[in-house]
């Protein structure tokens, strides 16, 4: 199952960043991000990194320099809702069913005409502290170029606010409480928020990601994304049956599924 996250620029209170679909845990995304920020062991120019990152909507799109790995088009957004069997292309390197294999050999991409996948909206897909969706965005890595600190946030369940709105809404609503703001999800009648797990000096030694992960998982009640698992559209078409999404994710963000 995917563990959603965000690589962001800003401060723990005010951040904006790109979406990450798979394995956003510190031991994976945290470590990858550290490696990316320290090519050859030297800290990157963080202002340049920030400017570059925020041209995109998705971490993979950023890593791919905006080139869609399905069709090879540039600047079209991250691919999603992939209905062709070439999805397996990402999972294992086996010959693809036709016409994807021929396409790959002829054009270098399995679906060059984008007949079997759609595209995201680039920077319009960014996530920010204005609407952080802490039920689904489980880990956020906020990089502050000004002080060269990376703050790791994790999502946790918060007590039901006394002033929780009573009206129905599919989108979560921000509620101010004496402990700070939380996000109230009326459909599941639960509140979530992001909390700081670690502040890491990017000029110092690499932290122990496992400790940060254990700290993040242990110190808070993790989101219990409804236990009702439903297949996403791609699963329905039978190509990625091992990938399951939650009901709410299907409802909210089908376009984010690949
Ligand atoms: Zn594409
Ligand atoms: Zn999916």
What does this protein look like?
The chain is of the alpha+beta class and 258 residues long. 22% of the residues lie in helices and 24% in strands. The strands form three sheets. It has an eight-stranded mixed β-sheet with strand order 5-2-1-6-7-10-9-8. Helix 1 crosses helix 6. The longest helix is centred in the N-terminal third of the chain and has 12 residues, at 26-37. The protein starts with a strand and ends in a 5-residue tail after the last helix. Residues 221-258 have low confidence and may be disordered.
Write the SSE topology:
Blueprint: E1 5-10, E2 15-20, H1 26-37, H2 46-53, H3 59-63, E3 79-80, H4 88-91, H5 100-107, E4 118-119, E5 127-128, E6 139-144, E7 149-158, E8 173-177, E9 180-185, E10 190-201, H6 209-218, E11 229-231, H7 233-236, E12 244-246, H8 247-253
Parallel strand pairs: 1-6
Antiparallel strand pairs: 1-2, 2-5, 3-4, 6-7, 7-10, 8-9, 9-10, 11-12
Helix pairs in contact: 1-6
The chain binds zinc ion (2 copies).
In percent terms, what proportion of residues is strand?
15-25%
Tell me the radius of gyration: 19 Å
In the sheet with the most strands, the strands line up as: 5-2-1-6-7-10-9-8
The ordered H/E elements are EEHHHEHHEEEEEEEHEHEH
**Termini separation (Å)?**
12 Å
The quaternary structure here is single chain
Bound molecules: zinc ion
